[in-house]
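Suppose you are handed a protein chain with no further information: no name, no annotation, nothing but its sequence. What can you learn? This example shows the usual starting point.
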Amino acid sequence: MKILAIGKNYVNPGEDKNEGKTGNQIIFSKPESSLVTGNVNVEYPSFTKDLRYEAELVIKIGTKGKNISEADAASYISEIGIGIDYTAKDIFDESRGGKGPWDLGKGFDGAAPMSTFKPVSAFPDLDNINFDLKINGEQKQIGNTSLMVYNFAEIIAFTSKFMTLEPGDLIFTGTPASGTGQIHRGDHLQASIEGDLVLDFKMV
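A reasonable first move is to predict its three-dimensional structure. Written in structure tokens, the prediction is:
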């Protein structure tokens, strides 16, 4: 099972999402061991002093495909959930500064807390899905898929040019353009899709 993620994929309301649309999407991956499911608490990693959160809708692939067209791409999605893309920013910046890979800053154990999934049929319009993140009861991020630079279909079509997508693969589709920040031990994270709380855990 692959866990893929796309970077810099949202604009703020009122901004032109086509301005940043170059066709070259920023794609990176996380190992399966980074996943945390079942709303269990997540251990704060001991090796970082600057852990950052990003709430993202996650699409699950249901059908094997390669070189998928944008017109057909939505049919390859089986379910949609929400996850947290954690970054150990100090580790990440050190690696990126030396033009190294992102793995240690993005792929550590616990770097991808993941909610339960809803069937894609529960979403009549994939370009109009609301989601949000609260931390300690305070609203931190609000997103809607209409603000995506590259929508689900474009992500699937682009990614499948380079690698075969297989059932069970997960794709983190980007975080709202504002509201990301630092996370601390003891913080309580709650993420919802269309008002339905599906991810609920604490950092310990």
